[in-house]
Specification:
With about 140 residues, the protein is mainly alpha-helical. It is built from three helices and two strands. The protein is about 70% helix and about 10% strand.
Length: about 140
């Protein structure tokens, strides 16, 4: 169902704002940043999921018998290693993932800051004539 509404005189006048080359560059930059933030947030969610998996593996390894050798994936192969060594490797992987998550979150915050600046500038010029919000 489409919702049509009549524009009042003020809205019609606002729609007549001319788009300069600089304004178009800002709109394009905002669009690129918007696509980038989607990719970064998706990657962040994947890393968080992987971190949860590593935490679960760590908990399971702590419950495992110390004398038992377990299979650990190295590249495309599985090797038998002691539980203590597997715990160390999982802890190192978890630390690396934590660092990557922090870097990614920092980049997300930076991109969001740039988007906020562009959004403020574009809304200041175009008002209701432009929609920069995600649906």
């Amino acid at each position: 169902m489409s919702s049509l509404r009549m524009l009042n005189q003020q809205s019609e006048n606002d729609a007549d704002v001319e788009v300069s080359w600089v304004d178009q560059q800002k709109i394009n930059e905002f669009s690129k940043l918007n696509a980038k933030i989607d990719n970064l947030e998706e990657e962040h969610e994947k890393m968080k999921q992987e971190k949860e998996y590593l935490d679960d593996v760590s908990m399971e390894l702590e419950l495992a018998d110390e004398d038992e050798a377990i299979r650990h994936k190295v590249g495309d192969a599985f090797v038998h290693i002691p539980v203590s060594e597997a715990l160390e490797r999982v802890a190192k992987d978890s630390e690396k993932l934590d660092l990557k998550l922090e870097e990614l979150q920092s980049e997300i915050d930076s991109v969001k800051g740039k988007m906020t600046e562009l959004k403020a500038a574009l809304y200041a010029k175009f008002g209701n004539s432009i929609n920069l919000e995600k649906d």
